[in-house]
Design brief:
Organism: marine sediment metagenome
Helix content: 25-40%
CATH superfamily of the largest domain: Aldehyde oxidase/xanthine dehydrogenase, molybdopterin binding domain
Protein name: Aldehyde oxidase/xanthine dehydrogenase a/b hammerhead domain-containing protein
GO molecular function: iron ion binding; oxidoreductase activity
Number of helices: 9
Strand content: 15-25%
CATH topology of the largest domain: Aldehyde Oxidoreductase, domain 4
CATH architecture of the largest domain: 2-Layer Sandwich
Order of helices and strands: HHEHEEEHEHEHEEHEHH
Pfam family, one: MoCoBD_1
Number of domains: 2
């Protein structure tokens, strides 16, 4: 159980370590593991699991993203008010002035859903702890060095006593980057028993215990001239981060970056929030926040083009960044192929 671990929390970012190896006192989503057993075979292990009795006290779940942000709502983490895990605010130019100068202003709301990475191979690990105090694990991870770092910290072993071997890995698509059940339970049990331990998630376990693409609600307000020239854009993004932060700061950054590329945008403002809910935590998946952002921005651009009776391709070419342009936040474009 969690009480058999050193009690140190983990996370891919040093400043945001907020998760126990095995939950202690409180579980925050349905796949939050609380105990692990080792046995001679899978059937015996399943029988042992059936003998474990856990006394749960049901708590009100936080499931609705916008209700989670309200004052006085139930907290996923006791120390975090309004369940706001992270927030970032960007402002370049003068969006209000841009809206006043615009011939047409449109405001829309878009939402994306949780999606699975779609790999066929579930998370798995084989761990061996030798008599000399050295731990070797074979794990189908994308990031073996960060896994070694997290195991060193949470298991209390120095780096030079941990070896992580990454065999050929099938599809991962961002879903096998961070520490998860097999990668820490198998080493923990191997250290306790002195025997090699193998742990493989079933696909249903993998679906509820690991990471998925983060769902986001966007509220976007955009001002343009009659000819389709973009003048200003304001975006409010609310990310359903699930029970833990994981790589949230990177996602928030990518939303801001993706909002200002690939079009000229003289005035831009972003308010972005990652919210804790009692759902599985989320992680990068091919694009890491940018896919969701471009879906929302491009969808609205189509709507604006239709309203102004402008060809959707024409409005994009008119506003496309060119080589040598400088974005509103000061990035110099050294290569741009959209117009081609």
């Amino acid at each position: 159980t969690g009480k058999d671990t050193p009690g140190l929390k983990y996370g891919p970012l040093r400043s945001y370590r907020d998760r126990d190896l095995l939950a202690i006192d409180k579980v925050r989503f349905i796949g939050d593991e609380v105990a692990a057993v080792a046995a001679i075979d899978e059937d015996t292990a399943e029988e042992a699991l059936d003998l474990i009795e856990i006394d749960y006290e049901p708590l009100p779940p936080v499931l609705d993203l916008e209700k989670a942000m309200q004052e006085g709502t139930v907290r996923v983490h006791d120390s975090v008010e309004r369940n706001i895990a992270l927030e970032r605010h960007w402002s370049f130019g003068d969006v209000e002035k841009g809206f006043m100068e615009a011939d047409y202003v449109r405001q829309d709301r878009f939402s994306t859903q949780v999606t699975t990475h779609g790999y066929l191979e579930p998370h798995a690990c084989l761990a061996k702890y030798d008599p000399y105090g050295k731990l070797t694990i074979w794990a189908n991870t994308q990031r073996l060095f960060s896994i070694r770092r997290d195991l060193s910290r949470t298991l209390g072993l120095p780096y030079n006593r941990i070896r992580v071997i990454k065999p050929y890995v099938g599809g991962a698509f961002g879903g096998k980057e961070f520490l998860c059940g097999p990668w820490y339970c198998a080493p923990l049990l191997a250290m306790k028993t002195g025997q090699p331990v193998k742990m493989v998630y079933s696909m249903s376990e993998d679906m509820i215990c690991t990471y998925r693409r983060i769902p986001i609600i966007f509220e976007i307000k955009t001002g343009v001239n009659k000819d389709g020239t973009l003048l200003a854009q304001y975006t409010r993004a609310m990310l359903d981060g699930g029970a833990f932060i994981v790589l949230g700061p990177g996602t928030l950054y990518n939303i801001g970056l993706a909002s200002m590329i690939p079009y000229r945008l003289p005035n831009f403002k972003l308010d972005a929030y990652q919210i804790f809910t009692n759902k599985m935590p989320h992680a990068p998946q091919r694009g890491h926040g940018q896919v969701q952002t471009h879906f929302a921005v491009e969808s609205q651009l189509d709507m604006i083009a239709e309203e102004l009776r402008i060809d959707p391709a024409e409005i994009r070419l008119k506003n496309a960044l060119q080589t040598g342009d400088v974005t509103v936040n000061g990035l110099q474009i050294i290569s741009a192929g959209l117009s081609e």
